[in-house]
Design a protein that fits this description.
It is built from six helices and five strands. It is of the alpha+beta class. The protein has a domain of 113 residues: Alpha-Beta Plaits. The structure holds iron/sulfur cluster (2 copies).
């Protein structure tokens, strides 16, 4: 039986007709190619795009200059320069990212204990000069204002970078440090 079926397929060129029918169907179906940049897709929530430094409500950067992001960065493209302030606090003098070397792994965001650095959804930032893709502290804070301002910035860590430190709760019977008893 199988032999007859096989023979029939060969004699009547069934496979060729099936293939041609598929080609014809595809010719009549609407094109799926997007005419970028005229036609753009919507937002890409959680996309790992251009970097930004988180700005606090008082307008200053949330970054404390601990350098963990720079230490973990596999591309070594983050540089943090700090000095000691008048009241012995650490001052972040410079925070720089060489965007062209970044591999968008997101380790810097994960490593930061203060939620001070983010990867925004913005991806259209090609340029003809290297300088434009060298981000200093002001540019990075500007990126926060442009791409993460308002609710978006507040939601960012909750939606895309779980678990947060508050997710690690101790079991009820686990011994935890509760301060000195008097
Ligand atoms: S996303 Fe990865 S490669 Fe890019 S700056 Fe952060 S840690 Fe470095
Ligand atoms: S961005 Fe975060 S990890 Fe990097 S130096 Fe600032 S506080 Fe530390």
């Amino acid at each position: 039986m199988a032999l007859i079926k096989d023979l029939a397929k060969k004699v009547f060129l069934l496979e060729i007709f099936k293939g041609m029918a598929l080609t014809f169907r595809m010719m009549l179906s609407p094109a799926v190619t997007r005419q970028y940049p005229e036609e753009k897709r919507g937002a890409f929530p959680g996309f790992r795009g251009l970097h930004a430094l988180v700005r606090k409500e008082d307008g200053s950067a949330r970054c404390v200059g601990c350098g963990l992001c720079a230490a973990i960065c596999p591309s070594k493209c983050i540089d943090v320069y700090t000095s000691e302030g008048a009241d012995h606090t650490k001052v972040v003098d410079r925070y720089e990212i060489e965007v062209l070397r970044c591999v968008y792994c997101g380790f810097c965001v994960e490593a930061c204990p203060f939620g001070a650095v983010v990867l925004t959804e913005h991806f259209e930032y090609s340029d003809y000069s290297r300088a434009a893709l060298f981000m200093d502290k002001d540019k990075l804070l500007g990126n926060w204002d442009k791409y993460m301002a308002g609710k978006k910035g507040i939601e960012y860590f909750k939606r895309f970078w779980r678990p947060l430190s508050e997710d690690f709760k101790a079991h009820d019977d686990q011994a935890v440090f509760r301060g000195i008893r008097k």
